[in-house]
From TrEMBL:
PANTHER family named among the record's database cross-references: XANTHINE/URACIL PERMEASE C887.17-RELATED (PTHR43337), XANTHINE_URACIL PERMEASE C887.17-RELATED (PTHR43337:SF1)
Keyword set, alphabetical order: Membrane, Transmembrane, Transmembrane helix, Transport
Topology term for the membrane: Multi-pass membrane protein
Protein's recorded name: MFS transporter
InterPro entries associated with the record: Azg-like, NCS2
Molecular functions (GO terms): purine nucleobase transmembrane transporter activity
The keyword Transmembrane helix is assigned to this record: yes
Family classification: Belongs to the nucleobase:cation symporter-2 (NCS2) (TC 2.A.40) family. Azg-like subfamily.
Length: 471
């Protein structure tokens, strides 16, 4: 039997601990592809959000340059997370944070000033990791709340999938109703795109039930092909952000002009020291806890945590996340953070950083093949989020002590506030505050770690900032 190539494979296996974590190279590759397809929309969406805003001088960022900045930063940081952090977590420009940058920071200063504040927030995150404070905060979270964060993320990604696919839509203000969302369009499921999503969900779940290897990736590929055929035959007017159509010119040239266009302290001259600090704090808080929740949820689902719910080597992961925040600002693509869509790769079987290497490599390829990378419609990719949401929920719901109301109620608040406020950070913040207050009310205040009290106070201040006139 030939042994040609075996030493290289063994070295790869040892470095990423593929066999040790019960995975295979094939699973890691499938997981990397699944995660990429589930989050490739960010290459299109982030430029739309940032490119639609103007800074205080009326300047707008170029869409083509933003595409390059978004893809190159996602590629670099995801590769870094794979090689250094060795976890199946992909990173890209954070939704929510990019809106803060576009709507709160940029109108009060120049774009380089705004991105400089993002870089500063990344430096603070790295400082918190270096001092051990970030790990202490994560370790202070009780086991029940950790599981609730995982469940909340599961519910959140399910809602993201339903909304992005068009299966659930926002109720227009003109309707004059307090009901915020509705089924499809006007309460009805209409059109081929929604049908593609429904068929994708059914196919994904059927493959999972039958324990077919590569269920999620198979579904994404099959539904993309079907969507391309349907679009060619029926000429669908709108699929949302991405139209499933083979591009006339699949190759595009990246434009790196925005990379490095940063002014670290220029924003403080425009808005003052106090307001500038509060801006950095706002970006920091969102990046810190969004990433924390995602890292905890994904690592738990990937079985990378110990009996206490803590992940060995977490500091490396947290430090890379801090680097990612700063890198996003440095490239002008806004703060980069861990993506909940990484659960799609975990659902495919990914357990190591090699899956992130694959995802990062695909983002690098997308720099030159963006038209192809963005031809997968959300209706073909989002069924993965529905399936993964269920898998997370079913694996964690029974591990919470529902008999202890001081943990059950905060867990309930955490898992519901994430989808209902469309924010991982809000779910964590409200859960932490509720936990600290209920333990105090029950006379069990000494059982609450000091770090939990500090973080709860920080969140309370954050929520009170508008009332105090600090925003």
């Amino acid at each position: 039997m030939s042994t040609e190539g075996r030493p290289q494979q063994n070295a790869l296996d040892r470095y990423f601990k593929i066999s040790e974590r019960g995975s295979t190279l094939a699973r890691e590759v499938r997981g990397g592809f699944a995660t990429f397809f589930a989050m490739a929309y960010i290459i299109v969406l982030n430029p739309i959000i940032l490119g639609s805003a103007k800074d205080m001088y009326g300047h707008q960022l170029d869409n083509g340059q933003l595409v390059t900045a978004t893809a190159v930063t996602a590629a670099f940081t995801t590769l870094l997370m794979g090689v250094i952090g060795n976890v199946p977590i992909a990173l890209a420009a954070g939704l929510g944070v990019n809106s803060v940058v576009a709507l709160q920071l940029a109108p009060r200063m120049s774009w380089p000033d705004a991105m400089g504040m993002v870089v500063l927030a990344g430096f603070v995150v790295m400082l918190l990791v270096a001092t051990g404070l970030r790990e202490r905060v994560m370790n202070a979270v009780p086991f029940g709340l950790r599981k609730a964060i995982s469940i909340g993320i599961g519910l959140f990604v399910m809602l993201v999938g339903l909304v992005d696919s068009g299966f659930v839509t926002r109720m227009p203000d003109a309707a004059g109703t307090t009901v915020p969302v509705q089924l499809g369009n006007g309460g009805h499921l209409l059109g081929w795109p929604v049908l593609i999503f429904v068929l994708g969900v059914l196919l994904t779940l059927a493959l999972i039930v039958r324990k077919v290897a590569g269920a999620i990736l198979i579904s994404i590929v099959v539904m993309t092909v079907l969507a391309v055929i349907v679009n060619a035959v029926a000429d669908i007017p709108s699929w949302g952000l991405t139209t499933p159509k083979w591009p006339g010119n699949p190759v595009s040239s990246p434009d790196f002009s925005l990379v490095g266009q940063v002014s670290l302290f220029g924003g403080f001259e425009k808005v003052g020291v106090l307001t500038g600090v509060l801006f950095v704090f706002t970006v920091l808080l969102s990046c810190f806890f969004d990433a924390m929740g995602t890292i905890m949820g994904v690592s738990d689902e990937a079985k990378l945590t110990d009996a206490e719910g803590q992940m060995p080597g977490i500091n490396k992961v947290l430090f890379v996340d801090g680097v990612a925040v700063a890198a996003g600002g440095a490239s002008s693509s806004s703060a980069t953070t861990a993506f909940v869509e990484s659960t799609a790769g975990v659902g495919e079987g990914a357990r190591t950083g090699f899956a992130s290497v694959v995802t990062g490599a695909l983002f690098a390829v997308a720099l030159f093949l963006t038209p192809i990378a963005t031809m997968v419609p959300s209706q073909a990719a989002t069924p993965a989020l529905i399936a993964v949401g269920f898998l997370i929920l079913s694996g964690s719901i029974t591990k919470i002590d529902w008999a202890d109301f001081t943990i059950a109620i905060p867990a309930f608040v955490t898992m519901l506030m994430m989808p209902f406020t469309y924010s991982i950070t809000n779910g964590i913040g409200m859960g932490f505050i509720t936990f600290s207050l209920l333990r105090l009310a029950a006379g069990r205040g000494r059982e609450v770690p000091v770090a939990m009290y500090v973080v709860s106070a920080v969140f309370a201040f954050y929520y009170l900032m508008p009332a105090l006139g600090l925003t």
